[in-house]
Amino acid sequence: MGLYVDIKKKLPGFSLNVCFEAEIDTMGLLGASGSGKSMTLRCIAGIETPDSGKIILNGRVLYDSAKGINLPCRKRKIGFLFQNYALFPNMTVEENIRFGLGDLKLGEQLRKVDEMISMVHLEGLEKRYPSQLSGGQQQRVALARALAIDPEALLLDEPFSALDEHLRNNLLKQLSETLSNYRGVTLFVTHNMEEAYRISKELVVLSSGKLEAKGEKEVIFTRPPTIETAQLTGCRNFSSIKHLSPFEIEALDWGIKLKVNHECRGDSQYVGIRSHHIDLAEDNDTENVFKCWAGFTSETPFRQTVYLSVEKKLLNSGAYHLQWEISKEKWDKIKDMPQPWHLKLSPEKLILIR
């Protein structure tokens, strides 16, 4: 049981070509803008038609180009939460939620609406119109409408993209609670790695219409297989490499030799390290310790990003080898220390990428 997708569709600028399976759980579709995430959802829902391929949900064939099968949206049993929510402005909250329940008797419709309103905490707002609701309330109405039809699959298309940070965090928590009680396939589209990690159990990474990676979120984040996947999961430091031995490489762009924990495969072309995995070396550290000079810095309210040159000080003030992200407290302690500093790139934190 679950969702099987294997479709192709030619689009302006690139071709969508994806194949994956999703079980009864939440899978994130992570990718940059224009990577094909939303188009994949629209094809699954029946809003768009692929050029070729097959879509199967819990054993039901929704689309099969070879057999001429293409079920209309209303027969697919799929709930869709649009990026802009797509609420009907001339309908109240309860009327929007009832919209897809026309096949039920009136009493069953009203019972279902009450159930959905309670589930998404919209009590007292039943008679309001979308224009009288906040962004978060509108999103919950759209989610209730999508779930009211008891869908076998729920498709969420960047539902938090228009919300501020505080509201996004609150609704992420509420959505996680709602999905924990949903017994169907959920596909959650986002370009935000933190949203993807918090909501999803598994991830599919798309780039220019093609599947870059698929797997458990912990594996995708700790061992991204491609440089595009590493970038989408927040890695900022990369270098092309030369293989020196099974457990040693030369980072050509950084000008240093590195010991690695895992044997280098022949198809590994890059090494990466996340900016928060770089650390000050201890006195007894000897492996992968290098002299570093701080160039320019940038800051957020709680973190400092330091742009480093490694083993030799770069004369160009805008040039750097590595980004190092640390807390403001640590930065305040080290910023006046004499340079070069000795920093460590721990072998277990290095990512080998094809």
TrEMBL record:
Keywords: ATP-binding, Nucleotide-binding. It comes from the Bacteria. It holds the Pfam family ABC_tran. SMART domains: AAA (SM00382). GO terms for molecular function: ATP binding; ATP hydrolysis activity. The keyword Transcription does not apply. InterPro entries: AAA+_ATPase, ABC_transporter-like_ATP-bd, ABC_transporter-like_CS, Molybdenum_import_ModC, P-loop_NTPase. Residues 2-233 form the ABC transporter domain. This is ABC transporter. It comes from Geosporobacter ferrireducens.
